[in-house]
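[SOLVED] Predicted holo structure with S-adenosylmethionine

Edit: marking solved, answer below. Original request kept for reference. I posted the sequence and ligand SMILES and asked for the 3D complex as structure tokens.
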Amino acid sequence: MARDSEEWAAYYAKTGARPPRQTLLFALDQFDRIRSAHGRLAVDLGSGGGRDVIEMLRRDWSVIAIDAEAAAAAALTARDDLPEGAVLETRVATFEDAVWPGCDLVNSSFALPLCAPDGFAAVWEKISISLKTGGRFSGQLYGTRDSWAGRSGMTFHTRAEVDEILSGFDVEFFEEEEDDSVTPRGESKHWHVFHIVARRRGD
Ligand SMILES: C[S@@+](CC[C@H](N)C(=O)[O-])C[C@H]1O[C@@H](n2cnc3c(N)ncnc32)[C@H](O)[C@@H]1O
């Protein structure tokens, strides 16, 4: 069941100010072990209300925030907690159509499963190619036991498929979650989620 723009806008209002995702924090901390973030570029795919983008900007990353919904860019740029001097570009585009430059980090929290199955491989290829050697992906994929599995326009993976997707990466953080809880829209659901931080190997 696809959401309409009004539903997404309500989602951004409800979730935008929530804390950043653990996968993003893990990835940022890994970078910080080497050197400061100044000059590093991150692309956030499906940036929503900006809960992750704000954290990256706060930690001195430059960010390109991409989302199919114009309301996401509007919610992000209207935030009153944007750090002064933040280097932020918002783009309204689908994962499938978006083009982005080489970068150090692609973050995509709870968004890539909203890619249709016939487009997923090409989107993952774009992510992989855009990452510099040593660059990282942080985010989530959904498993086949998720209660949304089978919804049209969404992609679900088995554990073996996730391993294959990550074959060109060193996996630094991996958690397979299965849990029953309630979505931000108040819907009960069974979550089957792969939480991932992975570092791109050299060619
Ligand atoms: C569940 S929200 C997650 C938002 C944010 N990453 C977070 O963690 O709160 C998914 C976001 O992906 C965006 N989205 C869904 N399908 C998309 C697509 N094919 N291309 C680009 N953005 C998409 C939605 O508009 C929405 O903002």
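OP edit: Residues 11 and 75 are 11 Å apart (CA to CA). Thanks to everyone who chimed in.
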